[in-house]
Every structure is written in C-alpha cells, then in structure tokens.
Design a protein that fits this description.
Elements (H helix, E strand, L loop, with lengths): L1 H38 L27 H8 L13 H5 L4 H7 L12 H11 L6 H18 L8 H15 L7 H13 L3 H18 L3 H5 L5 H10 L8 H13 L6 H11 L4 H79 L1 H11 L1
Helix pairs in contact: 5-8, 7-9, 7-12, 7-14, 12-14, 13-14, 14-15
C-alpha cells in the first residue's frame, strides 16, 4: 500500500507540474496585458463587448477587451490587423510564384529544368572535333560555371559580364595550336549556355573602346555618370540582390588593369565600398583563379613550344640523314655510270680492232663516214 501511494503521488506530480507552470505563466502574461492596457487610452467602439458577454478569445484568463483596444495593444508587436488576408505587413512578405522563381528552390521549377549535363551534351554534339587535352579541363569548367551562374534568376546581363567572358576565354585560348577553331569553340559553347556569342564580342569591344578612348582615372571611373559603364555600376549599387559572376569580377579586374590600377586587395576594397553589393573576398578569389589559369596555360604554351622546337630539330636531322644518304646514293650511281661508260669504250675499241683486222675495207669506210 505504501509503494502504491508513492507511485500515485509521483504520477500526479508529473502531470500537474506543467499545468501549474502554465498557470503561473498565464498570470504573468495577464498582468502584462493589464499593465499595458492601463497605459493605453480606451476607445469606444460600436463593436465593444459588454462585460457580461463572453470575451473575444473565449478565455477565462484574459480580461474583456473590445476590438479597438486589442488592436491598439497589439501594435506593439507589429500586428495591425487580425485578418491575415488584409494585414499589410503580412502581405508585404507573402510568398508568390515570382518570389519563389527568383529566390526559391530553382531546381523545382520548369524554368530551371535544364542542367549542366544538358549543356555539355549540346556542346559536344555540335563540336565533334577532338579538343587538345591540356585545354579540355579549362573549357569544361568555364562552360559549367558560366551556365550555373547565368541560369540563376537573379542574374542580369550587362556589358561588364560580356567583357569578362571574352577576357577569360580569349586570354587562355590564345595559345591554342588550331587558331581557326578558337572562335568556333566559343560560338558553340556560348550558344549551348544560352548566350549570343556575337553580342558578347560586340559588347566586349565596346567596353574596351570606352576604356582606351576615355583616359579615365580610377576615381573618375568610380564616379562616372554617363555611358555603358555608368549604367552597369548604377544597376549594381541599386540592386541588393545583385548576382555576382566570376566573369563579371574578371571584367572589373581587367578594367582596373587598363586604367593603370593593380588588381589587389586594397584596390578591390575601394571598389567594393563604391559598388556596395560586390564584396572584396569574392573579387580576390575570382582574380586569383583567373591568374592561376593564365599561369597554367603559359606553362602549357611553353611546353608546346619546346615540343615544337624539338620536333623541328628531329625533322631537320631526318632531312640531313636523307640528304647524306642521297649523296651516297648519287656518288654510287655516278661511279656506276662511269664504270658503264668505261666498259662501253672498251667494247667500242674491241669492235674497232676486230673490224680492222678482219674487214679492213669496211673499217676504212666507217672511218670516212665518221670523219
């Protein structure tokens, strides 16, 4: 019996403790409501609930308040309307199809059904020639990263992105042995990604022309008010959701080089502060990767030149060997011809002696004809 009472007491304590805790919390909340309501002027409303009626929440813990009093009280918590369909604060952040397409899970929408694999299939189905192994990795990475960044719904095409794409591609591919294939590869790749290669080249040339013809300083370029670069920088400053791309960062770094500014952490800090939504760590990372690609390709080009020089030397040695063999053959042939001619003269002399000995009259006649 003693153990049974102890067990019963423990069970009651277990179930009653949350109820008692809630009761103490509810009393504290009610006192908070009463203190706030006492400092809030009560408004008379036609919808006021009489003291004898059931209050709005149907609760015995809360005192009776009319709707106006509650509205005034809940303003402290940014609740302006009890109807969630009409509350401006809620409606402002209400999700929509456009919202989810712009900032949501893009792989769940039809717009983003195309993947990197599809881009590569389109490229290699159009460009069927073999690509040199030392350039194949760069092209695959360049194509994949460009597509992933461009397909993002926050991405907006601009002149600096076009300039950066062309700078990335043509700087690395300038040493490609098959020069006629450089533009063909770029055209097919950008088409597979979803961009117009001709437009990219034209816009990149416009940026290059503006920089070379303007003679702007760094400060002038940061504060430029007119032109294509002013338009690009203005859009970036006004878009807190600006989609940064590696090509855009490379384009900015190359522009800095053209105006005489070294792309490094200090200069990137100045541009980050000016552009507001472009950040230094990302710019440094992008520029470092670009410089790394350049160094690797320079090593590849140097190796290709060494191989070419070595192959030319081998070809020259083969030609020299063939020439020496030809001289030997020519000498042997000449000796053979001389021997044949010598033997021929010997045969003629023998024939003459036989003719003179056995047919002297005929021999004399032949001598007269030959003379």
């Amino acid at each position: 019996m003693k153990y049974y009472l102890t067990f019963t007491l423990a069970i009651c304590t277990l179930f009653l403790s949350p109820i008692l805790s809630f009761n103490s919390w509810s009393r504290g909340f009610v006192s908070r409501v009463i203190s706030v309501s006492s400092s809030t002027p009560k408004l008379v409303s036609s919808t006021a609930v009489s003291a004898g009626d059931k209050n709005i929440f149907g609760s015995k813990l809360l005192p009776t308040y009319n709707e106006d009093e509650l509205s005034e009280f809940f303003k402290e918590f940014n609740i302006t309307n009890f109807d969630i369909d009409r509350d401006p604060e809620i409606l402002k952040w209400a999700p929509s199809k456009e919202f989810f397409e712009k900032f949501g899970f893009q792989n769940n929408t039809e717009k983003y059904a195309r993947k990197v694999q599809d881009v590569k299939i389109d490229f290699y189905s159009q460009y069927t020639k073999p690509i040199l192994p030392q350039y194949k990795t760069f092209l695959a990475d360049f194509m994949s990263v460009t597509f992933i960044q461009v397909v993002d719904s926050r991405y907006e095409y601009d002149y600096l992105h076009a300039f950066g794409l062309c700078t990335q591609y043509y700087t690395v591919m300038k040493g490609y042995p098959l020069q006629d294939e450089i533009d063909k590869i770029f055209n097919i790749m950008m088409t597979a990604v979803g961009l117009n290669p001709n437009t990219l080249r034209e816009d990149a040339k416009k940026v290059l022309t503006v920089i070379k013809d303007s003679n702007l300083t760094e400060e002038d370029l940061m504060n430029v008010k007119e032109g294509i670069l002013a338009e690009v920088f203005s859009k970036v400053r006004g878009n807190r959701f600006f989609k940064y791309t590696d090509a855009w960062g490379v384009g900015l770094g190359r522009v800095m080089e053209l105006i005489g500014v070294e792309p490094k952490a200090e200069s990137f800090d100045r541009w980050s502060a000016n552009l507001k939504w472009v950040f230094t760590p990302r710019l440094i990372s992008t520029w470092s990767e670009f410089c790394g690609d350049q160094l690797r390709m320079q090593g590849v080009e140097a190796m290709q030149k060494q191989l070419l020089i070595r192959e030319k030397k081998r070809a020259a040695s083969r030609l020299e060997k063939k020439a020496s063999e030809f001289d030997d053959k020519k000498k042997a042939l000449q000796e053979l011809n001389d021997a044949i001619e010598e033997r021929r003269q010997q045969l003629i002399a023998e024939q003459k002696s036989l003719k003179k000995k056995y047919e002297p009259d005929e021999y004399e006649r032949l001598l007269k004809e030959s003379s």
